[in-house]
Design brief:
This protein is of the alpha+beta class and about 180 residues long. It has a single domain (about 1-175), classed as Aminopeptidase (3-Layer(aba) Sandwich). Helix content is about 35%, strand content about 35%. The chain has five helices and eight strands; from the N terminus they run E-E-H-H-H-E-E-E-H-E-H-E-E. It has helices spanning about 15-30, 35-45, 50-55, 110-125, 140-145; strands at about 1-5, 5-10, 60-70, 70-80, 95-100, 130-135, 150-160, 165-175. The longest helix is centred in the N-terminal third of the chain and has 16 residues, at about 15-30. It is globular and about 45 Å long.
């Protein structure tokens, strides 16, 4: 899948360290300004460790896609099957567990292509619903998802360090 200078490819277990490092850096870029350094450090060093992230790549139910802008790694998406919030009534759904573009590539179409690739995979797998969770204070991401047709169907708690935060659960019906 390409959009001028952007291309997407399926990740393999050989990409695990790259994905782990990109996961940590994009998470930090996205949330550090709105959270305390103490909570960010606790989260990154206890819950979102490099070792834990490396193990996600290749784990059953997980699919990772990498986005490149020219030849630079620009973003990724982690798709997950098999885990559902209790508010989701559908029995078949694909979760966008994480979707991030590196800061310097935001606004260049990376997120758009990753989202379209996620929809394509959901359709290939006959998943009638695609869903995700977004922090209630992440307006840029919320608006991006809303523009793609996602609607709020519930909420869940997310622990960042010692800070208990609320995520909106959003879904889009694909059928």
């Amino acid at each position: 899948m390409t959009d001028s200078m952007i291309y997407i490819r399926h990740a393999t277990t050989e990409d695990a360290v790259t994905i782990a490092d990109l996961s940590r850096s994009t998470f930090y870029e996205t949330f550090a300004e709105q959270n305390s350094s103490k909570n960010m450090d606790l989260f990154l060093n206890e819950q979102f460790t490099r070792d834990r992230l490396v193990k996600e790549v290749g784990a059953e139910g997980n699919t990772f896609l990498l986005a490149y802008y020219s030849n630079d790694l620009a973003g990724y998406v982690k798709l997950r099957q098999g885990q559902f919030p209790k508010q989701l009534k559908e029995s078949k759904a694909l979760e966008i567990a994480r979707i991030y573009a590196a800061k310097e590539f935001i606004g260049k179409g990376v997120g758009k292509l990753l989202m379209q690739a996620s929809f394509d995979i959901a359709n290939e797998r006959n998943m009638p619903v695609i869903w995700l969770a977004v922090w209630e204070h992440n307006e840029r991401a919320y608006n991006f998802y809303k523009n793609w047709g996602f609607e709020i169907f519930g909420s869940q708690l997310f622990l960042l360090g010692h800070d208990l935060q609320k995520d909106w659960l959003m879904k889009k019906d694909l059928k």
